[in-house]
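Changelog-adjacent note: as of this version, every example in the card shows the full chain rather than a window. The one below runs 216 residues end to end.
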Amino acid sequence: MKIAVLGTGVVGQTIGSKLVQLGHEVMLGSRDADNPNAVMWAKEEQNQHALFGTFSNAATFGEVIFNCTLGSASLNALDQAGAENMKGKILIDTSNPLDYSQEIWTLTVCNTDSLGEQIQHAFPGTHVVKSLNTMNCNVMVAPDKLTEKTTVFLSGNSAEAKATVNKYLHDWFGWRSVIDLGDITTSRGVEMYAIFWQSLRQATSSQKFNIKLVAS
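Full-length structure tokens:
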């Protein structure tokens, strides 16, 4: 399958590498066609299926798209990717609208709105599914490395798109517990969780943890 990963940071590279290992064709997208991070990633993968290009190149290439850009830059990056290049496709949004400028993180949008909603509003022809934004990227692609089964969440307006993403999460990354929270407005809760995640990371001195829902 041809997959676009927008963003060349650690999240994008981690997801891209996992998908290449599974035999998919992956293009990392960035503002510049010869982004140094993307060039190095492709070189280190030593795989003909590890490609790189602009945001527009990647969005055109991919049958499905991962948004792994910095939350504060996501809308601009997706504008560069192009609405027509993403029309009718699933966009798995892993980003959080975080402001990292202070020691204690804050959100640039919350309560009555979310980045997931803003992306869906800006690109109505794209099926936005918010997911994988509640954990470190190493957990995203390898949940079985944790000592117990934990949960990943889905938010989106299209039931069909969410069912497809559920299958991708299971088949590609090994997720066994997936909870559909509802429409894209439920992105608000999972994005706000990012602040709590920072507190947990500092309290446990670890990034490799996740949520396990226990119900009676």
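Structural remarks: DSSP finds nine helices and ten strands in the chain.
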